[in-house]
Design brief:
By secondary structure, this protein is α+β, with helices and mostly antiparallel strands. The chain folds into 3 domains: 2-118; 126-186; 194-336, Histidine kinase-like ATPase, C-terminal domain (Heat Shock Protein 90), CATH 3.30.565. Helices cover 65% and strands 12% of the residues. It has 10 helices and 7 strands. Helix 1 (2-29) packs antiparallel against helix 2 and helix 1 (2-29) packs parallel to helix 3 (46-78). The chain starts with a helix and ends with a strand.
């Protein structure tokens, strides 16, 4: 597949190159006094620039316009001074070539990104519908299985059998959590915004995660800006997102290390950072970590970060991840002060 794409790109580049060289050859082989012919040939340069921008975006558009400039400018400078007005028009046209290549390439890139976002949205919507159907079909049988296992467990005296039943019930609970994640991913979000202090929410999240932090022998440090403004947000949803990120950070960090949570005013929004001291995320996987069912954990569902991103974007916010200078990664959430 990659080899085929390379061959196609080589063909496209060859077409653009031959067009530019061919048009330039026409200029050099035509008498310089035939101004109308040269004007016509000059306008033909827009064709390879358009093709390059359409096929390769901004880099293609700029590359083709610079290539045209490289070949056409020496011809323009070689023309006699008798046709100075025509020369001036040629120089203006060269500037237009480069502006056009830049603008057309930018527009093409923007269109490509819009198409990609549309395809991703359609794909996620279809995936959400499928996941929702599967989760609903699994939910009722699992509840029944879990209930039966608990009933049997209460009547079993054999320790070995009881231990096996405990393991079975634990696996049922794990599947129930997976179904909960699947339903949370599939359902549309309807936020219930209320005014509140972000720092209060962070402190509550830290308190809830205290027991898990103790089990992992990890210290949670908070560095919160105290004069943050009150904003409107869905407390339940945002707490769910922060809890997920903090739990991930605790699980990633080694014993005796720290997880740091920061809050600060950033432009027209509030930034929340959660930094761990784990092994980090491979560079190749960083662009996919918010994709549903993609996970770096051995037992992860791959839906946690997808749900986090869904919650943050529902608040008109953004989320990104960066490598720390020493160890681990930092997840940064930005929530705007206003919404509309």
């Amino acid at each position: 597949m990659i080899s085929l794409m390379k061959k196609q790109n080589i063909k496209k580049i060859s077409v653009i190159t031959l067009l530019v060289i061919g048009i330039t050859t026409l200029h050099y082989q035509t008498d310089h006094l035939k101004i109308l012919n040269h004007i016509f040939f000059r306008e033909l340069y827009f064709l390879p620039i358009i093709l390059a921008g359409f096929w390769f975006g901004i880099y293609g558009g700029i590359g083709a316009s610079l290539f045209v400039t490289f070949l056409y400018l020496p011809f323009v400078l070689s023309l006699p001074e008798v046709i100075t007005g025509h020369n001036f028009g040629n120089l203006v046209e060269i500037v237009l070539f480069n502006i056009f290549g830049l603008v057309f390439g930018l527009l093409r890139d923007r269109q490509t990104r819009q198409q990609q976002r549309l395809l991703e949205a359609e794909s996620l919507a279809a995936m959400g519908r499928a996941v929702s159907c599967i989760a609903h079909d699994m939910k009722t049988p699992l509840l029944a299985i879990g209930g039966f296992v608990q009933q049997v467990r209460c009547k079993v005296a054999d320790d070995k059998l009881a231990k096996k039943l405990d393991i079975a019930f634990g696996q049922v609970q794990r599947l129930e959590m997976l179904i909960g994640d699947m339903l949370a991913f599939a359902k549309p979000l309807h936020l219930q915004r209320q005014q509140g202090m972000i720092n209060s929410l962070i402190e509550e999240v830290v308190m809830v995660s205290g027991e898990k932090a103790s089990r992992h022998a990890v210290t949670i440090m908070t560095k919160l800006q105290q004069d943050l403004p009150v904003i409107k947000y869905d407390q339940h949803r945002l707490q769910q997102a922060l809890q997920n990120l903090l739990n991930n950070a605790l699980e990633a960090s080694p014993n005796g290390s720290e997880v740091i949570i920061r809050s600060k005013r950033q432009g027209d929004g509030i930034s929340i950072e959660i930094a761990d001291m784990g092994e980090g995320i491979p560079t190749k996987q960083q662009s996919d970590i918010f994709t549903p069912f993609v996970t770096t954990k051995k037992e992860g569902t791959g839906l946690g970060l997808s749900i986090v991103k869904k919650v943050i974007e529902a608040h008109n916010g953004s989320i990104d991840v960066t490598e720390n200078s020493e160890k681990g990664v930092t997840f940064r959430i930005t929530i705007p002060l206003t919404y509309g």
